[in-house]
Specification:
This protein is α/β, with parallel strands linked by helices. The chain has three domains: 14-69, no CATH class; 72-186 and 224-386, Response regulator (Rossmann fold, 3-Layer(aba) Sandwich); 412-584, 3-Layer(bba) Sandwich (Glucose Oxidase, domain 1). Helices cover 39% and strands 12% of the residues. The protein has 23 helices and twelve strands. Mean pLDDT is 92; it is low at 1-34.
């Protein structure tokens, strides 16, 4: 076998080369095969046998010993970057995962993928790349893991699109794998978070906050590493992925900077090796019932509307039939129990203090709302994982009891009607009311709407229509956090509705409806609305309609002219050509 190759001797003579060649020639190929390649079904193809000497030589250079070729190779997909607090600490967690892997006599190999910070790009053209990054992340993990022949992998994500991107790659590759959530941020001064800053901008515009106070909030809202601290998209997706069974128990409910999160990462490294040994793959875990569990937990936590988009995409990658109507079906029976931001009071750190999401999941299981038989990455079923979980403290206020829910059914409401014949997603928490009727005030793109809100030209009774922000038309389906935060800052969230073919941040709240399909760029009805049209939104009847004669809609459709695409070059152009409807998860494959 090849020895450890750390240095090279320039006197390496022809006679030594000849001797080594003779040794290799005398060995049969089976003698060069490593022990028990069944536990290394992918890496053995890459590194076993005489003909793979060059591959081994390359790996010697990056620190492999001869013994390492006999071990399962476990990749660690790190989404580290220092461009956002969500991901700035991920490499520390990757190092902990590597320790766990190598403690189990396997070889850890860390590689990177990208991230785009929603919080930084929000309200700018850069936000067009956010949802696109989900596909790039999934594609890049798939490319490296399959290209390098890893036998399993750990994927660590800390920002909104990292997490579904990691889970999509896990489903596509179908190799033993575990997801690790990077963890939530600690609260800022006076329990502030990033949404506090967005809403402070609206307060400043309305004259209710001074510039000095705005700058003070800006400087103190984000204290360090971790994902945005409410039940926004990051914490929603971390919880949903745990409910799917793809991460270890309570991985979703740990602060980014904590001993618990580092232990979680190391434990994930240890666990993925056991998954390789037992040949437990995502296809053994990602059943239809597992997705129903994820939807149930998302609803109980009053999670982000983005969960609809991302769970559809993960299910597509896993080849599991899931539709937006499944959210409506399940939502009729599942109550909202978490009094968490943005609509509620509490942060993820406060949920962590009372035990995380495991006691909530046990409550839902005991109520018959979860499928306990579903397998998880622990090698045990969901019910087995929850068997010894203690209930929440009796004096806590974060999670309501089943007998006193915030809302008796789902806050995620799928609407249809002549304005959204293929569906739309509403986030109706009950705080906004269940119906809204108003007159349309139409804008092409987010910037125009935000300018009008800050200028005071949006008034009570308006239905703000932001269009040409869909997956193809945006492209990239930007989040409308800046407009909704400005409305909240100006005190209009109860008196104004906002509808869009774009989407919303998990931090948005108010009477907001997104994911309207077909989108405006495809000539959907949202492209045909005019200022002053009467729009009726009814969450109880699950309808969204514009009061127009069908003949008038046909007439407007004939006269409609599609605008030029945002760009005809680069990743956005490729994305716009490939991407599907939001009602199908906005997938590109």
């Amino acid at each position: 076998m090849l020895g450890d190759a750390q240095t090279y001797n320039t006197d390496f003579t022809l006679s030594k080369l000849t001797a080594n060649y003779v040794i290799f020639a005398l060995l049969k190929p089976r003698d060069l095969k490593m022990t028990d390649s069944r536990k290394r079904p992918y890496s053995s193809v890459v590194v076993d046998g005489l003909e793979k000497a060059a591959a081994r030589a390359m790996l010697h250079a990056v620190g492999f010993s001869s013994e390492d070729f006999q071990k399962p190779q476990i990749g660690i997909a790190s989404t580290w970057s220092n461009l956002t607090p969500c991901n700035m600490h991920i490499n520390d967690l990757a190092e902990a995962a590597a320790i766990g892997i190598e403690d189990q006599q396997s070889k850890a190999i860390t590689f990177n993928t990208i991230t785009v910070s929603d919080g930084i790009s929000m309200g700018s053209p850069g936000m067009r790349y956010s949802l696109v990054s989900r596909e790039v992340i999934a594609d890049s993990i798939e490319t490296v893991v399959a290209g390098q022949g890893f036998d399993g992998f750990v994927a660590i994500g800390g920002c909104d699109k990292n997490m579904p991107g990691c889970a999509m790659a896990m489903a596509r590759l179908n190799r033993p794998s575990i997801f690790v959530y990077g963890g939530t941020i600690q609260p800022g001064k006076d329990r502030r978070d990033v949404i506090s800053v967005f809403e402070a901008v609206g307060q400043y515009a309305s004259g209710n906050l001074s510039e000095i106070d705005l700058k003070e909030i800006e400087a103190t809202a984000i204290p360090g590493p971790g994902s945005c601290g409410g039940m926004y998209t990051a914490n929603t997706m971390a919880s949903a992925i745990e409910a799917l069974g793809l991460s270890l128990p309570n991985s979703s409910a740990q602060e980014a900077i904590s001993d618990n999160k580092r232990r979680d990462s190391q434990a994930a490294g240890e666990a993925v090796v056991k998954l390789v040994e037992q040949d437990i793959k995502p296809s053994d875990i990602l059943s239809r019932e597992a997705f129903e569990n994820a939807i149930t937990v998302t609803i109980a936590l009053e999670g982000s509307t983005n969960a609809v988009l991302h769970l559809l995409a993960i299910a597509h990658a896993a080849d599991i039939p899931l539709t937006i109507d499944d959210f409506s079906r399940i939502g009729k029976q599942v109550p909202v129990l978490a009094d968490m931001r943005p609509a509620g009071q509490y942060s993820m750190s406060e949920l962590i203090q009372i035990g995380g999401i495991q006691p909530l999941m046990k409550t839902l299981l005991e109520a018959g709302l979860l499928h306990g038989h579903c397998l998880t990455v622990t090698g045990k079923t969901l019910a087995e994982n929850l068997a010894d979980v203690a209930p929440y403290p009796t004096d806590q206020q974060v999670i309501r009891p089943m007998t006193n829910p915030i809302k008796k059914d789902s806050h995620l409401v799928i609407l249809r009607g002549n304005l959204a014949p293929e569906g739309a997603v509403a986030k109706i928490t009950g705080h906004e009311g269940l119906q809204f009727t108003g007159t349309a005030k139409c804008f092409k793109g987010e910037e125009a709407a935000l300018e009008a809100i800050l200028a005071g030209s949006v008034v009570a009774g308006d239905v703000i229509v932001i269009r040409y922000e869909g997956p193809k038309g945006g492209p990239g389906m930007r989040e409308m956090l800046s407009p909704t935060s400005a409305l909240n800052g100006r005190g209009l969230s109860a008196d104004v509705a906002l509808i869009t073919d774009g989407r919303f941040s998990g931090g948005s709240h108010g009477f907001v409806i997104g994911h309207i399909t077909p989108e405006a760029f495809l000539g959907g009805p949202i492209a045909l609305i005019k200022d002053g049209d009467n729009i009726i939104i009814d969450a109880q009847e699950q309808t969204i309609t514009v009061e127009l004669d069908p003949k008038e809609l046909v007439k407007r459709r004939v006269a409609w002219i599609r605008p030029d695409p945002y760009t005809e070059r680069g990743v956005l152009a490729k994305y716009a050509k490939l991407v599907s409807s939001a009602s199908l998860g906005a997938v590109t494959d």
